[in-house]
Design a protein that fits this description.
Number of strands: 9
Helix content: 40-55%
Distance between the termini: 39 Å
Shape: globular
Strand content: 15-25%
Radius of gyration: 17 Å
């Protein structure tokens, strides 16, 4: 099996505490990857860490218009056949890229999504899945179910660069659920393939973007779903708010 070249885009801003762990989770994979870090102008010493990697990574540091803009900048620089997006406070699981390469060895598969667990600020596992219900739903995901809630965890998704370019970049007017809009656009083009492996870890801590603004993120996701739902999916859309409340509860307590 020929392993595809991977490019990993990493947006970051003042993540000195976590960024080394994120980068190392890429560099220690059995399969190599191009690492493109897009820094929004950090002032916490992150740039010293990035400099310490030398030619092992590529990075730019300049003000941006938000996370969507940063990711889009990185996507334009990516040269790999396969692309992933890892935030600088999350990490990949060992051998994740081997699972990705195996799944995308089939040229008919355009994008994949896998399992993601949850860790704390000290890398301790909090939960094996973002929510138990998300874990079971991923195995039988459809466009209608995706309209009910964002079941896909961004750090567990990989796609062909050519496919992403045909779908278009992230919407830069979205700041909390831009990945959800992307998955719906991806799915409209072609359904994703579920990989039954834990590919990454989502870091949960009090000052994280998701931790601080989770309610607003769910509200933005509802508006995104409304924009994608046609008449045939009106029933799925009505369930979105109910699912948002359920996910909010499971997110905190499961």
């Amino acid at each position: 099996m020929t392993k595809p070249q991977l490019s990993i885009v990493m947006p970051t801003l003042n993540q000195k505490q976590y960024i080394r762990r994120a980068i190392d989770s890429i560099l220690t994979q059995p399969s190599p990857a191009e690492i493109i870090v897009v820094d929004g102008g950090s002032t916490d010493g992150s740039l010293h860490i990035l400099d310490s990697y030398g030619s092992a990574i590529r990075y730019i540091s300049e003000p941006d218009r938000g996370q969507s803009d940063a990711v889009n900048k990185g996507l334009k620089l990516a040269t790999g056949e396969i692309v992933g997006w890892l935030n600088s406070d999350d990490v990949y699981k060992p051998a994740a890229f081997e699972h990705v390469a195996r799944a995308l060895d089939d040229p008919a598969v355009q994008w994949i999504y896998g399992r993601v667990d949850v860790i704390d600020s000290d890398d301790n596992e909090i939960r094996k899945w973002v929510t138990g219900r998300k874990n079971s739903t991923l195995q039988k995901l459809t466009f209608g179910k995706l309209l009910q809630a964002n079941w896909i965890s961004q750090m567990g998704v990989f796609w062909r660069r050519s496919f992403q370019e045909s779908v278009g970049p992230l919407r830069e007017d979205l700041h909390l659920a831009m990945d959800y809009d992307w998955w719906l656009r991806f799915w409209k083009a072609t359904p994703g393939m579920f990989v039954d492996q834990t590919l990454a870890s989502f870091r949960m801590y009090g000052t994280s973007k998701s931790g601080k603004q989770y309610a607003k993120q769910l509200d933005e996701a509802l508006e995104i779903a409304r924009g994608h739902a046609g008449r045939e999916f009106s029933g799925d859309l009505r369930r979105h708010r109910w699912n948002s409340l359920l996910i909010r509860t499971l997110y905190r307590f499961c």
